[in-house]
């Protein structure tokens, strides 16, 4: 399948971002597969009023959407542990952000699992909005693999198997770590040790958010699930 994809002109990246830093806050959330970044995003979204946008979830939803012209391309990339063409991912993210803004008035986003490579980072910042910083969850591969294999017993995900997991690790190191390194040089990376339990990791993230001037929303505004 060709990587030349028509997505309403997004393959021709805008010369200026759609939104400014003053209008929209974006925090990239990166970490290897199984680092627990999705769990932390859900906690942060509830407590701090961010919209949690998972790049992986958006791609899986698009893959399963009836009539999607990109479904087979996405499925193959996920199975092989490779990266979906950036124009597809950026368009899905932009659409999700617009939808959240229109529906809830949200202007604060945690983008989970993105950018996965430097060209994604450069394209998103040039055409959508510059990021505030990267929240990087650092975790040893043996810990991540154990978590993913445990999840794979019940997740039903095609990529939760030993062969694909190791491919995903290699892809992350080769393509996503350069993103982390580039943003580190700009002073825009916060690294969290993610080998411990989720509550301990969350305490560290809260401390960092406090240092950055990001305060929890008032309890009355936190929309938790109603009691059973």
TrEMBL record:
<feature type="binding site">
    <location>
        <position position="157"/>
    </location>
    <ligand>
        <name>a ribonucleoside 5'-phosphate</name>
    </ligand>
</feature>
<protein>
    <recommendedName>
        <fullName>Uridylate kinase</fullName>
        <ecNumber>2.7.4.14</ecNumber>
    </recommendedName>
</protein>
<keyword id="KW-0547">Nucleotide-binding</keyword>
<dbReference type="GO" id="GO:0019205">
    <property type="term" value="F:nucleobase-containing compound kinase activity"/>
</dbReference>
<dbReference type="GO" id="GO:0009123">
    <property type="term" value="P:nucleoside monophosphate metabolic process"/>
</dbReference>
<comment type="subunit">
    <text>Monomer.</text>
</comment>
<feature type="binding site">
    <location>
        <begin position="113"/>
        <end position="116"/>
    </location>
    <ligand>
        <name>a ribonucleoside 5'-phosphate</name>
    </ligand>
</feature>
<feature type="binding site">
    <location>
        <position position="120"/>
    </location>
    <ligand>
        <name>a ribonucleoside 5'-phosphate</name>
    </ligand>
</feature>
<keyword id="KW-0539">Nucleus</keyword>
<feature type="binding site">
    <location>
        <position position="196"/>
    </location>
    <ligand>
        <name>ATP</name>
    </ligand>
</feature>
<feature type="binding site">
    <location>
        <position position="151"/>
    </location>
    <ligand>
        <name>ATP</name>
    </ligand>
</feature>
<comment type="similarity">
    <text>Belongs to the adenylate kinase family. UMP-CMP kinase subfamily.</text>
</comment>
<dbReference type="GO" id="GO:0016776">
    <property type="term" value="F:phosphotransferase activity, phosphate group as acceptor"/>
</dbReference>
<dbReference type="GO" id="GO:0006221">
    <property type="term" value="P:pyrimidine nucleotide biosynthetic process"/>
</dbReference>
<dbReference type="GO" id="GO:0005737">
    <property type="term" value="C:cytoplasm"/>
</dbReference>
<dbReference type="GO" id="GO:0006207">
    <property type="term" value="P:'de novo' pyrimidine nucleobase biosynthetic process"/>
</dbReference>
<keyword id="KW-0808">Transferase</keyword>
<dbReference type="InterPro" id="IPR033690">
    <property type="entry name" value="Adenylat_kinase_CS"/>
</dbReference>
<feature type="region of interest" description="NMPbind">
    <location>
        <begin position="54"/>
        <end position="84"/>
    </location>
</feature>
<dbReference type="GO" id="GO:0005524">
    <property type="term" value="F:ATP binding"/>
</dbReference>
<keyword id="KW-0665">Pyrimidine biosynthesis</keyword>
<keyword id="KW-0067">ATP-binding</keyword>
<dbReference type="InterPro" id="IPR006266">
    <property type="entry name" value="UMP_CMP_kinase"/>
</dbReference>
<dbReference type="InterPro" id="IPR000850">
    <property type="entry name" value="Adenylat/UMP-CMP_kin"/>
</dbReference>
<keyword id="KW-0418">Kinase</keyword>
<keyword id="KW-0963">Cytoplasm</keyword>
<dbReference type="InterPro" id="IPR027417">
    <property type="entry name" value="P-loop_NTPase"/>
</dbReference>
<feature type="binding site">
    <location>
        <begin position="34"/>
        <end position="39"/>
    </location>
    <ligand>
        <name>ATP</name>
    </ligand>
</feature>
<feature type="binding site">
    <location>
        <begin position="82"/>
        <end position="84"/>
    </location>
    <ligand>
        <name>a ribonucleoside 5'-phosphate</name>
    </ligand>
</feature>
<comment type="function">
    <text>Catalyzes the phosphorylation of pyrimidine nucleoside monophosphates at the expense of ATP. Plays an important role in de novo pyrimidine nucleotide biosynthesis. Has preference for UMP and dUMP as phosphate acceptors, but can also use CMP, dCMP and AMP.</text>
</comment>
<feature type="binding site">
    <location>
        <position position="168"/>
    </location>
    <ligand>
        <name>a ribonucleoside 5'-phosphate</name>
    </ligand>
</feature>
<feature type="binding site">
    <location>
        <position position="60"/>
    </location>
    <ligand>
        <name>a ribonucleoside 5'-phosphate</name>
    </ligand>
</feature>
<dbReference type="Pfam" id="PF00406">
    <property type="entry name" value="ADK"/>
</dbReference>
<feature type="region of interest" description="LID">
    <location>
        <begin position="150"/>
        <end position="160"/>
    </location>
</feature>
<dbReference type="GO" id="GO:0005634">
    <property type="term" value="C:nucleus"/>
</dbReference>
